[in-house]
Amino acid sequence: MGVMSHEAGRIIVPGGMSRRHFLNHLAGAAALAAPATAFTNTILANATDMRKRHKAAILLWMGGGPSTMDIWDLKPGAATGGPFKPIATSADGVQICEHMPMMAQQMHHMAIVRSMSTREADHMRGRYYMHTGYVPNPNVEHPSYGAVIAHELADQVPQLDIPPFVSVGGGSVGPGFLGMTWAPFVVDSNGNVRNLDMGVDPARMAQRMEMLATIEKRFISERRGGSAEDHARILDKTVKLMTSPQMDAFKVMKESQEVRDRYGNSGFGRGCLMARRLVEAGVPFVEVDLGGWDNHANIFPTLQNQKLPELDKAMSGLVSDLADRGMLDDTVVMWMGEFGRTPNINGGAGRDHWARSWSVVVGGGGFRRGVVVGETSEDGKEVVSEAYSSQDLMASVLRSLGISLETTFTAKNGRPMKIANSGKVIKELFA
Amino acid sequence: MRGALAGAMAVMLMAAGRMAFAADPVDDFGIPHVRFINDQIASAWSEAGLTPAKEATESEWCRRVHLDLIGRIPSVDELQAFVADKSPTKKADLVGRLLGDDYEDEYARHWTDVWTTVLIGRDVTNERVNRPGMRQYLRRAFSKNIPYDRFMEELVTATGANANRKDVDGFNGATNFLSGKMEEMGVENGVQATAKTAQIFLGTQVQCTQCHNHPFNKGKQNQFWELNAFFRQTRSLRRRDGTNDVQWVELIDEDFAGEGRNPEEAELYYELRNGLMKVAYPVFIDGTEVSKSGYLPATMADGTAYGVNRRKELAALIKTSPLFPAAIVNRMWGHFLGYGFTKPVDDFGDHNPPSHPELLDGLASRFREQSLDLKELARWIVLSQPYALSSRMTKANERDDPSLGEKPKFSHFYLRQLQAEQLYESLLTATQADKTARSEDAAKKKDAWMSQFVIAFGTDEGDDATTFNGSIPQALMMFNGDMIKEATSTGKGGFLDTVASSPMPNKAKIETLYLAALARKPAESEVTAANRMLAARRGDAIGALQDIWWAVLNSNEFIMNR
Fold first, then answer.
1. Which of A229, A246, A263 is the last residue of a domain?
2. Is residue B108 within 8 Å of residue B374, measured between CB atoms?
3. Which residues 6+ apart lie within 8 Å of A397 measured at CB?
4. CA B519 and chain centroid, separation
5. Chain A, window 210-249: residues with a beta carbon less than 8 angstroms from a chain B beta carbon
């Protein structure tokens, strides 16, 4: 197919060329890996379908490993307990930290799992394990939550131009054997996507893409390995993204001041607001990163004055906003880090890494609301109820999104890999 | 007639024999170490029933060896000189040149990039690390090609100021390896220094055993803290200069009184998971103990010497450890071949057996015999047969694919993306902007460009990753970024302007673009596509060349080492 109309050897740049028209050209020109028909069908799909209900998940990732016994599972009076006091919440009988007063008003939407017990207390290993349900293995890279959920839910919004796995602030884990198609799209908390402006008119861009496709195809045909095809796929996606009106979803400043105030004027707050906008636009998985929880020293003032106020404002803003908009039934919210922190307070008034007994928080989707699951001992050092693992949590999240736990992936080496590493659903999280 | 037939038969038989045994004599350039590699690799092929890919083209090999040794693609002149060279020793000659005086600066720049990332990562936010200082040290070390044991020793035992400032004496850029790894959250315990020293110089990951015995190798918690004890005389002192910002850091050794305040036997304590405290003194990972004294070496009034410099002891023990040469051989192999003998390259142990144990050991001991000369090690690897293979797979070797989790067999060259630094330098070379752009100012510009790809993980360990990984942000940068705008600019006197205004016919102009970026001539289909663009933009040849150039620079072929 000819990309441009020619008249007396001069290019006619079609003024006001529609996006669909442009993309059709690119689809013909690029058509690198995705079948062209699938590509054009997505463009032709009715835009109002976007408003259809779809499932999504938002992971609030607490990089560094937060001290959950100072936030969700307080031990007042215990030697290990620290200075914070518990307060009542909107969920019957559920108490959380006094420095989370706004979140306390939202706990009827959420569930705390106080009986997480894992073994990975190194940052890298813990981050990998909690994101994938697998311990690191030199021979295979496993897909993270974002990649798995995006992979399973991407079909529900076929006209999505934004990558289905967005990571706000980075810090996530990659797609592993599912491939670069499911890699996190990393943006900063202001939603800035660099280098989005193509700088030449669309007609010329289409010509460039045609030339590029010629080179790509030739190289791919030489069978030098999968990364050549991966590159072509990414080019296709990049073109879609560059021209998409959906990119507005990244612009939190389009929200009213009132809404922005609800999430707080912090990077994490803006990230949470962006997550809500992205989910509205059809993105099935958003991860928002809040680092700074690796509090080996001076933990209590750091939590009280910095970390908890920022978290409380943003997380309560997100949960209440999702609930008010009627999105919470379809949107799972998860809060976790790579592990908890030692019940023993160290010589520097900090807490060190601790994986044996700690908490995560989930809500929305098909989860039961306003409950606490599991229990730790009086000093917080042991789980005294049934203990749950990363894979159990992952199985539960998938179930609450309606994703079948019978799903089996085939790793690149042909080995079957059960979704969520055959984790068992945490039954108390479901009514 | 009969003789001719017999002759023909003999040729056919020889051909058949060759097919059966793939026994073309492989050039080892008269270097026994190269032969050793070739033999070891080939015997693993035959064990696995793999037939290696055919040899890469001369241009492919030439591009590869430039990228891996000096961190950029070859210029058109360099490429054409190599292809035109008819000498049977041309490959060895080219490697000799790239490792020799002519390319000393470029070699040093490339390995400075590589080792800056190894030693201090890509994150630029650690106030106790001075990147220019680190680089200054590395440039000197690689320019002089100092032996690898001296390199390690200088980094592990460094003292002095980490920044090169007029108002500060005692600058030693090597201090930057440890200056940012001594303290975490106000506690100066050298935990990161311990972990990174073991990881980089011994290929051993001990960081998990900081808190507990390793779940699946022999690592024990006491080993971590006994190794950590070697760093307890060391302090990283922040120096401020009228402002509140840290201006530089001084890394010093001082007497260590021990946590029990007995400097004769200066111990530290660590906490077991059950809350018990245990004592640790300096003991190397192989069990070798050194003096427990916390005093630095000194002499008493009566002339008796006492005390010990723990970091110097540590460097001496690392030097003699068999893991020391093995770790660097594995890292270098991974650098050139895309995969090390273990993955990751710095995680030896029973839990992670190497793909070619005899080759790894053999190269390690040969490297030590060769005075730990990194350029020699590089020479053996790039002249070896596996490094010379095509990345084009065949039915007979396509299952050798380490990205599927198999152990690498190196039966074809593994396609891989350029590192961000390699891409940056290659763009400069391709656009002939390198002559003017490679000053110290240029290093700052490069840093600023690199920083857009860095993701920090927000932990104390300063872990970082890069979005320069084949994802959409990278593609956007290559489509629309400033660097590409500059590279495809049609400004007067620039690369495209020079090509466009030369008297060459259009076909030769297109060829020049291809040679400059891809080290090959365009294929028929590409010439056709390019001609279409020239025809469409009739009257605007430079505009058409600009579009073609944009496409070439954005192609998988440009961004891959192949």
1. A246
2. no
3. A57, A145, A149, A332, A334, A362, A365
4. 23
5. 210-212, 214-216, 218-220, 222-228, 230-232, 234-235, 237-238, 241-242
Q: Which residues of A touch B547 (CB under 8 A)?
A: 204, 207-208, 211
Query: Quick one: A136 and A30 in the same domain?
Result: no
Give bridge partners of residue A86 from the DSSP assignment.
A97
Helix and strand numbers (H, E) in chain B are: 26, 13
Cis omega (within 30 of 0) for bond into B344: yes
A86 Cβ contact partners less than 8 Å away, ≥ 6 residues apart: A74, A76, A95, A96, A97, A98
Q: What is the pLDDT along chain B (562 residues), one digit of tens a residue?
A: 444 544 554 444 444 444 434 445 689 999 999 999 999 999 999 999 999 999 999 999 999 999 999 999 999 999 999 999 999 999 999 999 999 999 999 999 999 999 999 999 877 778 899 999 999 999 999 999 999 999 999 999 999 999 999 989 999 999 999 999 998 766 788 999 999 999 999 999 887 677 666 555 556 788 899 999 999 999 999 988 766 777 899 999 999 999 888 999 999 998 887 778 899 999 999 999 999 999 999 999 999 999 999 999 999 999 999 999 999 999 999 999 999 999 889 999 988 899 999 999 999 999 999 999 999 999 999 999 999 999 999 999 999 999 887 899 999 999 999 998 999 999 999 988 766 555 667 777 887 788 777 765 555 555 566 767 778 888 998 999 988 999 999 999 899 999 999 999 999 999 999 999 999 999 999 999 999 999 988 878 999 999 999 999 999 999 999 9
* A1 close contact with B: CB closer than 8 A: no
Full domain range(s) for residue A385: 55-191+251-429
Contacts by B434-442, CB closer than 8 A, 24 or more apart: B434/B72, B438/B109
Q: Are residues A232 and A265 in the same domain?
A: no
Give the C-alpha distances (Å, rounded to integers) separating A107 from A77, A269, A286, A329, A331.
24, 18, 21, 15, 16
- Largest CA-CA distance found in chain B, in angstroms, rounded: 100
A138 chain-B contacts, CB cut-off 8 A: 342-344, 347, 351-352
Of B525, B526, B547, the CB nearest to A208: B547
Which among A10, A128, A208, A300 is the top mutation candidate for probing chain B, defined by the most B β-carbons within 10 Å of its own β-carbon? Answer: A208
Asked if A223 lies within 8 A of B393 by C-beta distance, the reply is yes
**Residues of chain B found within 8 Å of residue A11, distances taken between Cβ atoms:** 536-537
A299 and A410 co-located in one domain: yes
Q: Tell me the helix, strand and coil percentages in chain B, rounded to 5.
A: 50, 10, 40
Query: What sign does the dihedral B62-B64-B70-B71 (CA atoms) show?
Result: positive
Is residue A275 situated within a structural domain? yes
Contact B470 A231 (CB under 8 A): yes
Residues A182 and A296 in one domain: yes
Distance from CA of A376 to the nearest CA of B (A): 17
Tokens matching residue B277: 């405290």
Number of domains forming the structure of chain A: 2
Q: What is the ipTM of this complex?
A: 0.88
Q: Which two tokens stand for residue B14?
A: 């020889």
In this structure, the answer to whether residues A117 and A149 fall within a common structural domain is: yes
What's A359's domain CATH number? 3.40.720.10
Chain A / chain B CB contacts < 8 angstroms? 214
Chain B residues closer than 8 Å to A295 by CB: 185
Domain boundary among A183, A211, A246: A246
Amino acid (one-letter) located at A81: G
- Is A328 a domain residue? yes
Together in a domain, A227 and A348: no
Shared-domain flag, residues A164 and A218:
no
Residue A105 and residue A184 in one domain: yes
Domain assignment present for residue A50? The answer is: no
Residue A49 lies in a domain: no
Q: Could A125 and B456 be called an inter-chain contact, meaning their C-beta atoms sit closer than 8 Å?
A: no
